[in-house]
Amino acid sequence: MDSINIWEWVGYLASVVVAISLMMSDIKKLRWWNLIGAGLFVAYGLAIDAIPVALVNFFIVLIDLYYLVKLYRAPALENK
Predict the structure, then answer these.
(1) DSSP state string for the chain
(2) Number of domains the chain is built from
(3) What is the per-residue pLDDT across 31-40, written as a single tens digit (0 to 9) for each?
(4) Average pLDDT over residues 51-75
(5) Per-residue confidence (pLDDT) for residue 79, from 0 to 100
(6) What integer pLDDT is reported at residue 40 of this predicted model?
(7) Transmembrane ranges (predicted)?
């Protein structure tokens, strides 16, 4: 199996993971699944030299991380 086929499959996997994330009703699960999917799209975009794909998905990774930190810190702040 050549490298193009492998990266093509990474792209398909990323699409499936993002689609799964959109079916989550729990916002934490949605953010985690979306983070994984966007991370896979970053790798895919870099591997096929599609810099716009990599950049927008890197931005999505940062957004997901920001909101995950907020979600996990919120209960700790409420207990103070």
Answers:
(1) --HHHHHHHHHHHHHHHHHHHTT-SSHHHHHHHHHHHHHHHHHHHHHTT-HHHHHHHHHHHHHHHHHHHHHHHHHHHHT-
(2) 1
(3) 999 999 999 9
(4) 95
(5) 59
(6) 98
(7) 6-25
**Cα(4)–Cα(61) distance, integer angstroms:** 24
**Global pTM value:** 0.86
Separation of alpha carbons 15 and 42, rounded Å: 12
The structure tokens listed for 32 are: 């985690």
Give the residue from 49, 51, 61 showing the smallest Cα distance to 14: 61
Q: Pull the structure tokens for residue 40.
A: 């896979």
Q: What is the pLDDT of residues 18-34, one digit of tens each?
A: 999 999 999 999 999 99
Q: Do 34 and 18 form a contact (C-beta atoms < 8 A)?
A: yes
- 53 lies in which domain range? 3-78
